[in-house]
Amino acid sequence: MDFSFTNEQELWRKTVREFAEKKIKPRVREIDTNKKIPEEIIKDMGKLGLLAPTASKEYGGADLDWTMASIAAEELGRADISLAIPVLYLVEAAWGFILSKYGSEEIKEKYLPKITKGKAFCGIAVTEPEGGSDILGAAKTKAEKKGNKWILNGEKIFISGIRESSKWGGVHLTLARTNPKTAHKGFSFFAVPLKDSKSIETTLFEDMGRMGTSTGGFTMSNVELPLYHLIGEENRGFYYAMEGFSAARTLIGATCVGAAEGALELGIDHIKNRKAFGRPLASFEGIQFPLVEHKTNLESVKLLTYKAAWTMDRFYKENKGTHHDIAIAAAMTKLRAPVRAFEVMNEVADWLGAVGYTKEYPVEMGIRGVRSYSIGAEGTMNIMRIIIARELLGKDFLPYK
Fold this sequence. Notes:
4-stranded mixed sheet, Butyryl-CoA Dehydrogenase, subunit A, domain 2, 4-stranded antiparallel sheet, Butyryl-CoA Dehydrogenase, subunit A, domain 3, alpha+beta
């Protein structure tokens, strides 16, 4: 058992950290205020291999494994505590991987080289107006094969990257029913382009946080797609979606660790230098003991996160383990990471005092941003509990059967 990182992994961390500290961190407030990631940052991320890095090299990716992908996620979270850039990163890393692994040659050649250069976007579209977590019961979007085309109708909502995809181009991997007579085996996955489609109407929401990456929805009215826009096999879409969600949940853990560590470092610097009653704040046990608890909690989350990444690498690189192993590890990571990160940021805001309630410090951006992960992104906290319970007890005890 070895908990150390390899020389290659340490070099990658150093490279991403230096890039993020120089190019991203000084502009986080600008990104949050302007609600947009500057094009030059996107371009530079593409050059460094930080856009859909888990995609195949054949199509412009870096074939990054999940440990390396998690290291990058952690460092981006540390630099951008608002989590806007980390969200963009993890969405493309998770779903770019699924597109690269299961997409047709035509769809990969058409979009992946652009996605990895920041000239197109790759997202996920599962949630619908009548429900997000209850995919099997709430999903109304349908796809029907007619001749040499697929026809899609339905609505997706609370989807990341609507503005980016509409402006840059690209695809959202969209779940649709292709066999209404079956449950999870009746869904298929499609690469749906939003830009310049007369049959798609988009809408945007204003989130409370992670302002640099957009959220919205889109409605499809008889959207026609070539047959090659089907991802993988017909009626296997649910499985591809779950595979992608496990990847995204692992990367969420890493971004939360990075953002929380960044906040904690800011807080430690403050309590060492700020004095009260003639002593540094760091001298008081009322400050020290919470610091110790939060640091220990963060370390446990980091171990969960990198165990999940290791589990994925073991499966994809060595063909060891199962998707079930990945699902439970990723769900445990997602269950703990956002909560622990929020607790850290909330504590640091208390240490800062009145200034912590202002925009003079970035902690308020982190508090707003990290809440998206526990509220619903890639599954609510209770869905993580259901997944873990399912793996521990078996499907016979599912509450929704």
